[in-house]
Amino acid sequence: MPKSLISIQDFTKEEILHILDMAALFEKDRERSFLSGKVVACLFFEPSTRTRLSFEAAVNRLGARVIGFPDNRNTSQSKGETLEDTIKIVSNYVDLIVMRHPMAGAADIAASVASVPVVNAGDGANQHPSQTLLDLYAIKKTQGRLDGLDVNMVGDLKYGRAVHSLVDALRHFNPKFTFTAPEELEMPKKYLEMLDKDGIPYRQVSRIEDGLNECDILYMTRVQQERFPDMAEYEKVKDVYRLTASMLGSVRPGMKVMHPLPRVGEIAEDVDATPYAYYFQQAGGGMYVRMAIISYLLGYSF
Ligand code: CP
């Protein structure tokens, strides 16, 4: 089976650091067409702006070509074709598959039948490993290191796949976590048990004010409406946190606010002009990180 990126655990700490180094080289020089002749499929069964377009831009900048779809309504899945059959067929046409799917575990299924590498571009509430690599890229760039940071994750920690992958990855780097969430959206037990096993400290709070001034990274998240089985439950928690510029008066000087985006109200627009806002630059780095992921999985490493 070719090497894929389905969960962040598919990459060792050394591989993670190597991807970040490659991304930095791509950021210095993004016109590198050494994948000319390759074809990459971007199969998005769920909406996306950043992930799909930055993967597609990455493919183009590497000199490869891209095929795929931004939603599956016009594919033979609408006639009942299985995910497995779709992936087996697409594997014949391309050198690598990038896939987003609403079902947790879908990327794993795809990788098990694909004859080419698969990159998980988000599978339900499970994992989003390429997001995590770009998050680490942003963290390293702003803090000068990955080791020993205080990371405060805020919002929907239950359904947010970006925070699940990021917690998993940061275990390599001696973090201290604060998890800020209402009871309904707490970090799943599976991740807390992982941290307990590794002896990584964390605390759980429900008021955003409780963890604002003691963190290096404030990782805000959107409440994931699309994952709630009951809309009445979503209505109860949808506006639980709203970060405004006036709340940032006593934060650490180098603290950065990050967010996988899209935001829908949890970060007020007046935060954008503060020196703490980094979410747009964070997303911008995603293209270089995805250039590195694609190159690495296709056997081009430097
Ligand atoms: N962060 C992220 O996955 O954004 P998109 O849903 O726009 O791809």
Describe what is shown at a glance.
This protein has 302 residues and is α/β, with parallel strands linked by helices. The chain is built from 10 helices and 9 strands.
Beta-strand share of residues: 5-15%
| SSE sequence, one letter per element | HEHEHEHEHEHEHEEHEHH
Output the radius of gyration. 19 Å
Query: Which ligands appear in the coordinates?
Result: phosphoric acid mono(formamide)ester
Q: Based on CA inertia axes, which overall geometry fits?
A: globular
Number of domains: 2
Describe the 3D structure.
This protein is an alpha/beta fold and 302 residues long. It has 2 domains: 8-127 and 286-297, Rossmann fold (3-Layer(aba) Sandwich); 129-283, Rossmann fold, CATH 3.40.50. It is 35% helix and 15% strand. The chain contains 10 helices and 9 strands. It has helices spanning 13-28, 50-61, 83-93, 106-113, 129-143, 161-170, 189-198, 231-237, 279-284, 286-297, and strands at 39-44, 65-69, 96-101, 118-123, 150-154, 176-180, 202-205, 217-220, 256-258. The strands form 2 sheets. The chain has a 5-stranded parallel β-sheet. Strand 3, helix 4 and strand 4 (118-123) form a beta-alpha-beta unit. It is globular, with a radius of gyration of 19 Å. The two termini are 23 Å apart. Phosphoric acid mono(formamide)ester is lined by residues 48-51, 122, 131, 260-262.
